Amino acid sequence: MRKNNTQEIKGVIREYIEALGHQRKLKEVNIISSWEEVMGKMIARHTTKIYIRKKVLYVYLDSPVLRNELLMRREQMQAHLNDYAGSEVVEKIILK
After folding, report:
1. If DSSP codes are grouped into helix, strand and coil, which group holds residue 63?
2. Which of 10-14, 15-19, 41-45 reaches the highest mean pLDDT?
3. What's the chain's Rg over C-alpha atoms?
4. Distance of CA 7 to the CA centre of its chain
5. Model-level pTM?
6. CATH of the domain at 71
């Protein structure tokens, strides 16, 4: 008789990533790839470059007005992004 040892592929991949210790990097990639969904179309439209290095999110914008507005809301953005990721992925945000 054969054992029924089936698992969802999503769970298997998650376990594999956790075992390799790449869970934080996966969350970083998820934040970047979901930037428009998380921050909205208007902010995404004016974002020219975005990356995370050593828990610092670098966001390049083509609008000085939007940059100044986001500078005032940096802490809210950080909290929103970390809530979306489910853990503290971003410790600091630098807007350029």
Report:
1. coil
2. 41-45
3. 17
4. 27
5. 0.80
6. 3.30.300
